[in-house]
Amino acid sequence: MQKTEHVQYNRAGQRVVSPDYLLFEAPREKQFMTGSEVVKEAVKRASVDASVSYPITPQSEAAHLIGELWVEGYVGVYFRGESEFGVMSEIAGCAMAGARTITTTSGPGTLRAMENFPMWAGSRLPIQLVLMARGVNAPLTIQPDNLEISFLLDTGCMIWHAETAQELFDMILAGFVVAEQPDVHVPLITAIDGFFISHTREAVMLPPDDIALPPYNPYKSPMVPLDMEMAPGRFLRDPYVMKSNYISYAAHTSWQFEVRAAIERSRPYAKHYLRGLIEEFGDPEAEIVFVASGTAAAQAKEATLMLLHEEGIKARVVRLKTIRPFPTQELIEALRGAKYVFVPEFNVIGWLEREVRRALYGNLDVPVIGSPRVAGGMTMPPEFIVKEILQFLGKEVKHVV
Amino acid sequence: MAKLGPSGYSPYPVAMYEGILTPPPGKALLFNEIVDEEIAMREAAKAMLTRENPTIFPGPQVLYAWNEEAKEKAKLVRKIAETLGAKIIPMYDYRPKYPKIDPEKEINPNHPNLTIWHNNIKACIFVGVHCHYANVALKIIRAETDCFTIAMCGNSGHEDAMITLRDQHVEELEKFIRVAEEVKKELGK
């Protein structure tokens, strides 16, 4: 008997393939693209139903390019919100109606939209937000800086931090798959360092654009789709939840723990689709270790090579791909044998240093040095990092930075 | 779930924070142990057949005829109730009820303890409840009651239940009925 193969196509006429095929097996071709262009390429292959946009540097181009995909028929619904708050509320409406959704924002826009992020998480909406981080400050800054990630750490959203445009492409596709698992089903913030990734061009390997992720199945949602007949959601109108002093805390506590438990449940899926929650780079025996994420990790890798080749000093990098869930166990294992841990960062407060200290406290006794740290748009050339290490070790600094 | 009752200073325990994950495909969770599905089914049947006022809480996914599987599952849930001698109290949707729920007739995910207290339920099965609402309710039940909780989930399961059966579709519900009939015979009921 002849075997019949069932081939499924999405609304754009792309052949639907498994996430594993799209991410790991499909042939790839080299392209030279900015991070913003890469967002378009990922969304093009993601069977996205809806996207809402609002301009703010540095994410405007990515939002604009998703709009082009709507014109080309790859995205079902696309419109401009009234503000970032409007965007994040409207995209929630789309997700509640059962749509696969993606949006983008940056810096002050993130803060303007802030109230929505815990609402997304509590409503179990697997919205993907591509966050192109930019400084948050008065006077207004339009510079690369990832301070805003710290504001998002406890919103109940997953947070992944991409190092390169290539990783951003892969994370966007993997992100939909992980966030839409029925036992996870919380929003995902896919962060990059704005300008460094969004505006610079690099080689990326892309699968063909005539294949795409399977469409989202809202009937697997842990909440009822279109649960909006009593706006803003029937659960918000329960008198016991809203008013009773005793019973309301039972529901709210349980609800908040459930959202955090959902983030924890994403670990095995993220491990598979991201090929691990951390990446280790450099000599595994090295006692000097940089713990970093995003662009700071890329700079630390370069510094590691300079330290080895120019100074004969062994160092290594532990790069964190996910911030929520935080890869605590992986980090502890990777740092066994470390003598000094440096945390280079692109923000004034050192949010990653805090996270690392919290993860290691009581688990591993190793000095954590929150340095080098730059903010407000400064760059962090690898020479900075090399200088920091040499000074710390009491060695002569040959480079003048 | 790892253990009965509250955990640490939090009255609302979270099995995930105690290191308990949902079971892998093909397996089930019996407290904090990953076991074969049949072993968990036997323990679930035993709990329902030996504890006071066993009750099934069916949710919207099996109460409404929204697809063919739901219709089949609804019939099987009724058969499970007959086999186990269990009452059925539906969680028929998640709407607010004014001025309050009638605990003899329904259960609400945000205050499931009211129904369990009122009816003195010592063992229950969640089936067809949307995962988020099941998880919220199971945490509250664990903290506020001594009810033995069993989750029959069509997706990945619920680590906050004392017994978690995952990927429970028509075939699995039929298997559970067979197992329950065997356990019933063994118990001389």
Provide a quick synopsis of the model.
The complex is a heterodimer of chains A (401) and B (189). Chain A is an alpha/beta fold and 401 residues long.
Structure keywords:
heterodimer; A: 401 residues; alpha/beta; Rossmann fold; seven-stranded mixed beta sheet; 38% helix; globular; B: 189 residues; 14% strand
Q: Can you give a write-up of this model?
A:
The complex is a heterodimer of chains A (401) and B (189). In chain A, strands 4-3-5-6-8-7-14 form a 7-stranded mixed beta sheet, sandwiched between helices. A 5-stranded mixed beta sheet of chain A has the order 11-13-12-15-16, with helices on both faces. Chain A is globular. Chain A folds into 2 domains: 205 residues, Thiamin diphosphate (ThDP)-binding fold, Pyr/PP domains (Rossmann fold); 115 residues, Rossmann fold (3-Layer(aba) Sandwich), CATH 3.40.50.920. Chain A is built from 15 helices and 16 strands. The longest helix of chain A is centred in the middle third of the chain and has 21 residues. Chain A has 401 residues and is an alpha/beta fold. In chain B, 39% of the residues lie in helices and 14% in strands. Chain B has a single domain, classed as 3-Layer(aba) Sandwich (Rossmann fold), CATH 3.40.50. In chain B, helix 1 crosses helix 6 and helix 3 runs parallel beside helix 6. Chain B has a 7-stranded mixed beta sheet with strand order 2-1-7-6-5-3-4, with helices on both faces. Chain B is an alpha/beta fold and 189 residues long. In chain B, strand 1 and strand 2 form a beta hairpin. The chains are: A alpha/beta (401), B alpha/beta (189). The interface between A and B is medium-sized, with 32 and 38 residues.
